[in-house]
Amino acid sequence: MDEMVDLLDEKGNYLGKSILKSEAHRKGLYHPTVHVWCYTSKGQILLQLRGKDKATFPLKWDVSVAGHVGTGESLEVAAVREVQEEIGLKISQLELEKIAVFRTENRHSESLMDREFNHTYLCRLDARAKLQKQESEVADLRWFSLNHFKEWVEENHTDLVPNSGGRYERVIEEIESRI
């Protein structure tokens, strides 16, 4: 779905302008996204297998929930909305714990350049929570042990969306400090 997103400068500051997400990607303009990593107190992490029709990294394991922040939308509202859309859970903003902001750049093709600031959150869940994947975006949802995910990251496993800026290591470190 195409939506309006706010434009950012190379430091992540809002420019007071918005553009269609497709145009931001086509022109390689910075914009905000949210990433929500769901985990359990028993050391499990929820990963999503990106849908086969995704323009970027189809059928690769990735963050539990990710999405674009709509124009004028707060980061936390976007994160709560994306959690409900992609995994079918209603959470509150109070369940989100912001851990970092990562600037990422990925050229996927001549007409698709992702330049994003990923506002990254943790959200503790119960592994028994009833998950409902968004069919158009998500091929699968699966709980993995944090140790399994850590091994994948260490071996740069090809089933994962490529790691950039040490973001996977930071997420692992942050979750380990909470379990």
Automatic annotation (TrEMBL):
<keyword id="KW-0378">Hydrolase</keyword>
<dbReference type="InterPro" id="IPR020084">
    <property type="entry name" value="NUDIX_hydrolase_CS"/>
</dbReference>
<dbReference type="InterPro" id="IPR015797">
    <property type="entry name" value="NUDIX_hydrolase-like_dom_sf"/>
</dbReference>
<feature type="domain" description="Nudix hydrolase">
    <location>
        <begin position="29"/>
        <end position="173"/>
    </location>
</feature>
<protein>
    <submittedName>
        <fullName>NUDIX domain-containing protein</fullName>
    </submittedName>
</protein>
<dbReference type="Pfam" id="PF00293">
    <property type="entry name" value="NUDIX"/>
</dbReference>
<dbReference type="GO" id="GO:0016787">
    <property type="term" value="F:hydrolase activity"/>
</dbReference>
<dbReference type="InterPro" id="IPR000086">
    <property type="entry name" value="NUDIX_hydrolase_dom"/>
</dbReference>
